[in-house]
Amino acid sequence: MSAPAWMIYGANGYTGELAARDAAARGLKPILAARNGQAVARLANELGLESRSFSLEETKQTAESLHGIAAVLHCAGPFMTTSAPMVRACLDARCHYLDITGEIAVFEAIMKLEAKARDAGVSLVPGVGFDVVPTDCLAAILAGELPEATELTLAFYSKGGTISRGTLTTMIKSLPAAGAIRKDGKIIPVPVAFDGREIPFSVGSRYAITIPWGDVSTSWHTTGIPNIRVYSATPRRAAARMRRIAPLLPLAARWPVKNLLLAWAARRTGPDSAMRNTARMYLWGEVRDAAGTAVSATMDTPEAYAFTAMSAVTAAERVARGDVGAGSWTPSRAFGKDFAEKLDGVNLDPIVRIQ
Question: If you count Cβ atoms within 10 Å of the first and of the last residue's Cβ in the chain, which end, N or C, has fewer?
Answer without folding.
Answer: N
